[in-house]
């Protein structure tokens, strides 16, 4: 009986807190599934303060799912540039075309059907189904894991199979069945603003009295997460070809990071390369193909671009050719291409 009472108190406190503290965000002023879907895809693995400008740009450029469907993939990737996890953008575009052309612009109206859309997992399907259609399905994201783990004192790892199943069951148990959409937003907002990962606001928290983690002084110990796999190190040598007016970009076509984005010709190596080592590489020799050139290293200090699962150690080699670049692009057009952030930063720093 005590656990049941705690669940009811928990739900009421979270809902009450949300009414008083929720942020005024544009997608919260709508129940349009296109806008909710777009916001959820953008905010996957992205903070709201970072994702909000992207959401506003996407809505302005593509006000309907038909507008997004009719865009080119390059347009979508360019608008997405800087958000990372670019498979999200490719899936976004794919699903927009599916909804626009095969479903007459009408999103599926149930959790089970929404889950069939490319790029829409359990969390996103739950959010859309509950917010747009009032379906009683619980969302479980990082914020929800943290709030539930701390309040109920659960130390089962949130990224273990057992933990994923248990927290979904717990989230469903405490769900507000009458107002699932509002409640789902409430618990996520509570985790983002009150029960924060670092320095949570326990002193002003309405759940303090019955929060297991607070009572046992384990707030900083929960939630528990299994250690990730070892970070992979990669070494990229970008060859920035320049003639009087042009440079060269190539699309990344393989199934790897940044698929379908553009970059300067790349020589990947097992370690940082010296000038002498680079100019003996077969990929470099094939690219230069006997041309006359001058070469210099732009960044003597190797830059490190950190992704969630790998670190990219990057050197930019400026190669000035004495003759025109075959199939080159005009330097003034380079900013039209969708590129990874480390390429965009170089373009800005170098002044292309």
TrEMBL record:
<keyword id="KW-0234">DNA repair</keyword>
<dbReference type="InterPro" id="IPR023170">
    <property type="entry name" value="HhH_base_excis_C"/>
</dbReference>
<dbReference type="InterPro" id="IPR015797">
    <property type="entry name" value="NUDIX_hydrolase-like_dom_sf"/>
</dbReference>
<keyword id="KW-0326">Glycosidase</keyword>
<comment type="function">
    <text>Adenine glycosylase active on G-A mispairs. MutY also corrects error-prone DNA synthesis past GO lesions which are due to the oxidatively damaged form of guanine: 7,8-dihydro-8-oxoguanine (8-oxo-dGTP).</text>
</comment>
<dbReference type="InterPro" id="IPR044298">
    <property type="entry name" value="MIG/MutY"/>
</dbReference>
<dbReference type="GO" id="GO:0000701">
    <property type="term" value="F:purine-specific mismatch base pair DNA N-glycosylase activity"/>
</dbReference>
<protein>
    <recommendedName>
        <fullName>Adenine DNA glycosylase</fullName>
        <ecNumber>3.2.2.31</ecNumber>
    </recommendedName>
</protein>
<dbReference type="GO" id="GO:0006298">
    <property type="term" value="P:mismatch repair"/>
</dbReference>
<keyword id="KW-0227">DNA damage</keyword>
<dbReference type="GO" id="GO:0035485">
    <property type="term" value="F:adenine/guanine mispair binding"/>
</dbReference>
<dbReference type="GO" id="GO:0051539">
    <property type="term" value="F:4 iron, 4 sulfur cluster binding"/>
</dbReference>
<comment type="similarity">
    <text>Belongs to the Nth/MutY family.</text>
</comment>
<dbReference type="InterPro" id="IPR005760">
    <property type="entry name" value="A/G_AdeGlyc_MutY"/>
</dbReference>
<feature type="domain" description="HhH-GPD">
    <location>
        <begin position="42"/>
        <end position="193"/>
    </location>
</feature>
<keyword id="KW-0411">Iron-sulfur</keyword>
<keyword id="KW-0479">Metal-binding</keyword>
<keyword id="KW-0004">4Fe-4S</keyword>
<dbReference type="InterPro" id="IPR029119">
    <property type="entry name" value="MutY_C"/>
</dbReference>
<keyword id="KW-0408">Iron</keyword>
<dbReference type="GO" id="GO:0006284">
    <property type="term" value="P:base-excision repair"/>
</dbReference>
<dbReference type="InterPro" id="IPR011257">
    <property type="entry name" value="DNA_glycosylase"/>
</dbReference>
<dbReference type="GO" id="GO:0034039">
    <property type="term" value="F:8-oxo-7,8-dihydroguanine DNA N-glycosylase activity"/>
</dbReference>
<dbReference type="InterPro" id="IPR000445">
    <property type="entry name" value="HhH_motif"/>
</dbReference>
<dbReference type="Pfam" id="PF00633">
    <property type="entry name" value="HHH"/>
</dbReference>
<dbReference type="GO" id="GO:0032357">
    <property type="term" value="F:oxidized purine DNA binding"/>
</dbReference>
<dbReference type="GO" id="GO:0046872">
    <property type="term" value="F:metal ion binding"/>
</dbReference>
<dbReference type="InterPro" id="IPR003265">
    <property type="entry name" value="HhH-GPD_domain"/>
</dbReference>
<dbReference type="Pfam" id="PF14815">
    <property type="entry name" value="NUDIX_4"/>
</dbReference>
<keyword id="KW-0378">Hydrolase</keyword>
<dbReference type="Pfam" id="PF00730">
    <property type="entry name" value="HhH-GPD"/>
</dbReference>
């Amino acid at each position: 009986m005590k656990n049941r009472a705690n669940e009811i108190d928990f739900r009421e406190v979270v809902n009450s807190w949300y009414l008083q503290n929720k942020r005024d965000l544009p997608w919260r002023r709508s129940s349009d599934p296109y806008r909710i879907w777009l916001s959820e895809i953008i905010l996957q693995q992205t903070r709201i303060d970072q994702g909000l400008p992207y959401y506003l740009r996407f809505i302005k450029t593509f006000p309907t799912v038909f507008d997004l469907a009719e865009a080119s993939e390059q347009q979508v990737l360019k608008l997405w540039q800087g958000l990372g996890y670019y498979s999200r953008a490719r899936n976004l575009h794919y699903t927009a075309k599916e909804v626009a052309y095969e479903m007459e612009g009408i999103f599926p109206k149930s959790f089970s059907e929404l889950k069939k859309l490319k790029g829409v997992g359990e969390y996103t399907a739950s959010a859309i189904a509950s917010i747009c259609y009032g379906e009683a399905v619980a969302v479980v994201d990082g914020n929800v894991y943290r709030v539930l783990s701390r309040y109920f004192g659960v130390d089962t790892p949130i990224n273990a199979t057992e933990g994923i199943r248990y927290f979904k069951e717990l989230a469903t148990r405490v769900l507000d069945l009458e107002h699932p959409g509002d409640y789902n937003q409430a618990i996520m907002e509570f985790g983002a603003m009150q029960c924060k990962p670092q320095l949570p606001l326990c002193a002003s928290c309405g759940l303090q009295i019955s929060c297991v983690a607070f009572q046992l002084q384990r707030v900083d110990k929960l939630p528990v997460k299994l250690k990730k796999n070892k970070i992979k190190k990669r070494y990229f040598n970008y060859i920035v070809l320049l003639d009087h007016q042009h440079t060269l970009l190539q699309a990344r076509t393989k199934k790897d990071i940044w698929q379908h984005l553009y970059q300067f010709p790349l020589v990947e190596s097992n370690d940082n390369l010296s000038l002498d080592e680079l100019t003996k590489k077969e990929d470099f020799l094939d690219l230069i193909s006997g041309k006359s050139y001058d070469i210099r290293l732009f960044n003597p200090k190797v830059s490190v671009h950190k992704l969630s699962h790998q670190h990219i150690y990057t050197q930019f080699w400026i190669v000035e050719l004495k003759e025109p670049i075959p199939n080159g692009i005009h330097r003034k057009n380079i900013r039209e291409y969708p590129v990874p952030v480390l390429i965009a930063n170089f373009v800005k720093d170098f002044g292309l």
